[in-house]
């Protein structure tokens, strides 16, 4: 914190974010396409804030309910941590 303090930065903790695809039932080509989009997230925090500010409607549901949420229209899109875990769970076959 002493090192960063000279730059008016308060170091909290390290964070590593990787690029992540959004699995969606509708095309998402730009930020305007997020307006009103019902998107599944597994938790709140920073990611939920970003999607909310972009105009999406964030829906918090557990991973095991993604299929039924897509089938019933509860959500139109979602993320599931890494694409490799989405592939392992067969989500690519439905989207």
Automatic annotation (TrEMBL):
Record's protein name: Uncharacterized protein
N-terminal signal peptide: none
Pfam families: DctP (PF03480)
Biological processes per GO annotation: transmembrane transport
Keywords: Signal
InterPro entries with a match to the protein in the record: DctP_fam (IPR018389), TRAP_DctP_sf (IPR038404)
The species this protein was found in: marine sediment metagenome
């Amino acid at each position: 914190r002493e090192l960063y303090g000279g730059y008016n930065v308060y170091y909290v903790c390290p964070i590593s974010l990787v690029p992540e695809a959004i699995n969606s039932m509708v095309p998402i080509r730009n930020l305007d396409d997020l307006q009103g989009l019902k998107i599944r997230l597994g938790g709140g925090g920073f990611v939920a804030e970003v999607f909310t500010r972009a105009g999406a409607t964030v829906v918090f549901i557990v991973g095991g309910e993604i299929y039924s949420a897509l089938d019933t229209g509860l959500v139109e899109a979602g993320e599931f941590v890494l694409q490799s875990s989405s592939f392992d769970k067969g989500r690519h076959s439905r989207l």
